[in-house]
Amino acid sequence: MRLHLAVILSFCLVGWARSQGTKYGLWTPDRAHSDSQPIQWTGGQFEFPCASTKSLFKSSGKFIPKNVIATRAQLIGDTIYLALPRYRKGVPATLVKTSVKPGTCSTTFKPYPCWDLQEEGNCKALQSVVDLVVDQNEVLWVLDTGIVNTLETPVRKCPPKVVAMSVKTGKVLKTVSLEGLTSSSSRLQYLVVDYAPDGGCFVYVSDAANRAIIVYNLQADRGFRVVLPKAVTAGCRSRDVLYIALIRRDCGSTELYFTYLSTNKLFSLKSEYLRSGVADGRILDLGKKPSRMVIIGTDNGSAIFFRNEGDAEVYRWDTNSTFAEANFKPVYRSQTCQLVTHAVPDYKRNTMRVLQSNFPDYMQNRVGCGAIQQLGLMQGCW
């Protein structure tokens, strides 16, 4: 599978029922394909080995359905892989998979790759997965911060790490410890996997607290930190969220785009400079952001998807065009006021999907029986 959608995503969905204006132009909702209807669930239900195991997890407080929320996703065929960060107690598995086959009427999570790799306190297992990526070789990469209960009383169970697993076999292929590349104050948030022209594999991780991007060379089995210039945090009230997005050009080169939520500018750096650790004087200032942008994903090509903080509309920006509001195209609007946390390619159906939820309510512990989550179909012209 080639992670490039420059051709696949060059069409416009047609058959819209109505049009609505936005600050960036005309939003045109599309009628979803019959086999791509939204899938919705509340909290989280798991496929336990047996009923007694489920009862034991519940009675011990290891399974509290309303504390489960999916924030990031990856699709391969009819299977979706989800990151369930352990923000609160009661999340029995932090990496799961479930089916998105047409006709699916209920969502049950199956721990991935197995239950043994979900054990809290076991540093060979996953503690809290906050991001995940599937690369061109169908390898699933996950970012595990090692910190649980982050919204209650944060506890560092294990050092942070990146784990690579074969989607085909479910076997762990590589575990990269980030212990020597982080500090006690580090806040690791997003993960990107990049391949150099010679086939070398590199992992990039954003560390918001330290104003840095961690670079790890898998072939050399070593890593380093690229500390970003102070200009990247200019006007930032706090080093809150450091978004990173990898763009792939038609010529085969890649470029990393990044910005803090609270800053007013967007920056980029060619991956060849990032991989060599030479960032000084190479970072491009792309200009002022019109608002507090929340970057939610890419099409694995030249497009970045984002929304404005607190808003339900999603926009697409083709990075081959200038960074200006005139080039932000509306492609999705939640009909339920939910907020999108991830936009991901659905190769089997030649479209983009959005993972959305009432995330703000979850953060404030106001979800009743649990956060309402939905995997929807992107709309509009893209």
From TrEMBL:
Keyword Signal applies: yes
Gene3D superfamilies, sorted: TolB, C-terminal domain (2.120.10.30)
Location(s), subcellular = Secreted
Q: What is its main location?
A: secreted
Q: Tell me if Signal is a UniProt keyword of this record.
A: yes
Signal peptide residues are: 1-19
The source's domain of life comes to: Eukaryota
| A Gene Ontology term for the protein's cellular component | extracellular region
Q: Which UniProt keywords apply?
A: Secreted, Signal
Q: What PANTHER family has UniProt attached to this entry?
A: IP19120P, PROTEIN YELLOW-RELATED
Give the protein family.
Answer: Belongs to the major royal jelly protein family.
For this entry, the protein name equals GM14481
